[in-house]
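Service request form, structural biology core

Requester: graduate student, group of Dr. S.
Request type: structure prediction, single chain
Budget code: on file
Notes: please return the result as structure tokens.

Sequence provided:
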Amino acid sequence: MNETKIIHNGRLVDEETVRFSLNDTDLLYGYGCYEVLKVRNGLLYFPEDHVERLLSSAEILGFEHDLDRDDLITALRMLVVSLELVDANLRIVVLAHDGRPADWYILPQPAFFPPKNAKTSGVDCLLYEGERHFPKAKSLSMLLSTVAFRAASRRGCYDALLVDRTGEITEGTRTNVFFVDKDAPDTVYTPQASRVLSGITRKTFLQSLDAAGRPWKEAPLRLDEVLGGRYGLLVSSTSTTLVPVARLLDQEGTGVHTLPVFDELKKLSAHYDAWLSAREAELRGTP
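Core staff response, request fulfilled:
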């Protein structure tokens, strides 16, 4: 993948021409927002949804900008074509400023795929106490998520799941959470959108359930009920779609909790992958 070109305020430029000052407090304080999109087999997934959420994040954070939906989508597609991207991720970064409009950038990054056998065997996640500021905005202020995710990585975990002060699991540092009652698996549950960053995979997975006539509800996810073995968990992200959670590790390193990875979780993951494949075929104009 050729990474020498990026987008800066709508123009294709050489990456090395972009410079930042270490005295830039906007940059140092994470004053801005971002999005990550995926390109697979040359197809850019859900650019309209990602741009809509980017604009929503900018509105929530309240900074000055002249971002335009159509310009952003055109720039995303231009970068895919110019770099001849096949499998990659694209990161949009909007860096806000005090007293003038935000600058925005789009840069290519390597594609990320789920670990081998993750969709059948599940992944490990670390439990981490914390709550994000501006939970509905995809902010550049990533301290909590960075600390939690790196703690998870050191323990060999796929992600860290955030536990709030009331003892509820809300979301991962880079994933949304779904849960299914093992004794009543027909309904899919997910924490309330008002309390989390609702990912594009979360949004489209729920759309796929609606299309299939499958019931789903927003509901709080109590950690004690999860540890009691009542629920099976799935986590979702742009890069890896849906994978089951096989084990939860305590933040203190004192315990490992095995979760049920039952067939319904695997079926839901396969259902969404099939729905995505159908959407891809539709966008490519193939049967």
